[in-house]
Structure formats: structure tokens, C-alpha cells
Amino acid sequence: MDGTATLQAALLSLATALPPHRLRQEEAKAIARRRFSGANGLFARLETVFDHAGIATRQLARPAEWYLEEAGWQARNAAYLESADALYTQAASRALAAAKLEAAEVDTLVTVSTTGIATPSLEARAASALGFRPDAERVPLFGLGCAGGVSGLALAARLAASGRVVLFVTVELCSLAFRGDKSSKANIVATALFGDGAAACLLAPGDGGIAQVGPGAEHLWPDTLGIMGWNVEDPGLDVVFDRSIPPFIETELAGGLRMLEARCGGTVDRFVCHPGGAKVIAALESSLGLQTGSLDHERAVLRECGNMSAPTVLFVLQRLIESGLPERAMLLALGPGFTLSGLRLERRP
Predict the structure, then answer these.
(1) CA–CA distance from 239 to each of 11, 259, 309, 327 (Å)?
(2) Angle at which helices 185-193 and 25-35 cross, to 10°
(3) Most buried residue, 13, 147, 192, 318, by most Cβ within 10 Å?
(4) Is 146 a catalytic residue?
(5) CA 301 to each of CA 10, 53, 100, 227, 277: distance values in angstroms, whole numbers, following the listed order
(6) DSSP bridge pairs for 164
(7) Which of 146, 201, 273, 305 is catalytic?
(8) φ, ψ for residue 248 (rounded to 5)?
């Protein structure tokens, strides 16, 4: 290990879960065309975004016909609670089984979700079914968006390093924010990109497991609140996507990455990136000095699942683990703020 980085916790397992409704991109395009039929020609000018998004299929929380209906806050959040509860349980159960742990052995529950409101939070709702201890510490996190997979895992690792067994779960149901009543470029692009999914990790103090999780760090650029996020409106969330995201990455990522590397350690063998979209992946390769096509697992996850927000980078990590995790890797994700979140991993021998 080089630089100032210090090993913090062991990643024992990683599991993912997807909702049951599979949608091909051409079907998504047809649904969007119907939903945006009154958009004064805006959809006709933008519909090629579906063809160039790098997505073949996505898994959604609801069947295709649900997205043709009008739905308000109550219906959207009811759908969120039902699907998020199921995905949390699936991902957590798979991660526990892979780590050969019982739910009662978990000391701390870290949960990241930003696409619905759950009070009580998702881990509390799943506690009885999964068998968590009544004294398990609960840490629900909201508002991290696409960076939440990395930021949440980094927090879980810090808690594990202090002597706890930690279950980290992130669930995002971005499709529930699709808004046919809102004719905007950002909303149409979101309809072309977003899918739903969940990921879960078990972490423990000391050595062992799949990898050692090193220090995490974040970099927040000043005066960038309008680049990415949600506007809270009736009848639902309204996505904020600035067209400047890919060029911003190309011009600003290197500076932010230098700050992260100063805290997380030196060189890495592989960056593991959140694939926000085809243009974002290309911008990441350019700004990281990588050959075109280097982020192959990122493109594969985007093609098969779309942009699922926070869990997506963990789907990429899962593929990398299955194909052979390099000795040193760094997870990277960009999210609302505008924020770069990074986390270093070291493969166990």
C-alpha cells in the first residue's frame, strides 16, 4: 500500500437485486413518445437520445402500462415503498448469505435512497422479516443521488473499521419519477436513461473477505447546485440534469481527482465508475486519460440496466469482482452537489 492510505475494513460480500419488469429500450421509446405527444415537437427533436444512450434493457419497479398513467405523490410513493421494501430484502438477504452471516450478527445498518420517502426508513421496515437485532444501529442517508453508492459504502467502511459488522444497502427507483406531464429536455433524457435496482454489501473490521476498503473522500465544487438533483413538485419529483455535465467532467474532474487521491492514496490499476450515460462514460475516459472502451464493465451495466443512480457503481464492481478484481481499484461517482465521491479498494491475496 502506498501514500497516506490506511486499510480500514474488509468487504465480505456484494449482492445486487433488480425489480421484475424488464423493458427494452425500443419499448421505452414508444412509451415516451406517447407520454410526450403534446410536447410541441420537443420529443421528436430529442427522441434519438434513446438510440444513442447505450442502453438495451432496463428493469423497472412497475409494469410498462403504469408509466402511461397519471400518478401523484401518494401513488408514486406507495409504489416506491412496495418496491423498495422488496429490493432491500432481496439484496440484503443475498449479501448476508454470500458472507455466511445471520442478520442478527449485523451491528449497524447503513441505507442510501433518494427516490422516495420512507419513514420509518427502509432498514426499519425490513427489520422483522430479516431478523435484525433490536439494538442494531440505523443510519439512513438521503440526498446523495448517484454518488450515494460510493459515499454510503465509504461511511459503512469507516463504521466497520471501528469494530462493527455493517450492512450497507442502497435502493433507487428512478423510474417512479418519470413525468409525462412535464415537457422538458431533462425529463425526456431521464426517461431514456433511468432504471431501478439495489445493491448490498457486508463489511467487518480487520482482514479477509473480497477486498480491503480503504479511505473514502469527497470533493464538492462550489456554486454547482443546479447541475444535478431533484425539484420537489406536484405531482412528483422533477429531475435536474444540466447539459454541461459531460464537458464539466472533462474540464474539472482531474482537479477533483487529485484532491481525492491525496486522501485515498496513490496510483490505482482500475477506476470503477458510475456510468451515468454514454456521454458521461466517454467524458470519464477522456478526463482519466483512458483509452476509449477501457470502461467496459461500465458500458455493460449501462447497456443491461440503465442508470440506476447510487447502486449502479456497485453493479460495475460486482462484474469486476467476478472477472478478477485488480490489486488496487478506486470507485468513483458523481452526484448532486455537484460532488465527486471516491473510495479505494485493495484486493485480498
Answers:
(1) 33, 29, 12, 37
(2) 150
(3) 147
(4) yes
(5) 25, 12, 27, 24, 10
(6) none
(7) 146
(8) -60, -45
Cell of 4: 497516506
For residue 117, give the 3-state DSSP assignment. coil
Grid coordinates representing 176 are 417512479
Which residue segments constitute the domains of the chain, with CATH numbers given? 1-349 (3.40.47.10)
- Cell 436513461 locates to 193
Q: Which residue has the cell 438510440?
A: 51
Dihedral in degrees, nearest 10, Cα atoms 280, 282, 288, 292? 160
Residuewise pLDDT in 10s, the chain (349 residues): 343 445 579 999 999 999 999 999 999 999 999 988 876 789 999 999 999 999 999 999 999 999 999 899 999 999 999 999 999 999 999 999 999 999 999 999 999 999 999 999 999 999 999 999 999 999 999 999 999 999 999 999 999 999 999 999 999 999 999 988 888 899 999 999 999 999 999 999 998 899 999 889 999 999 999 999 999 998 989 999 887 899 999 999 999 999 898 888 778 999 999 999 999 999 999 999 999 999 999 999 999 999 999 999 999 999 999 999 999 999 999 999 999 999 999 998 7
Q: Which long-range contacts (CB under 8 A, 24 or more apart) does 123-128 make?
A: 123/88, 123/167, 123/169, 125/81, 125/85, 125/88, 126/85, 126/88, 126/89, 126/92
- For 256, residues 6+ apart whose C-beta sits below 8 A from its C-beta are 219, 221, 340
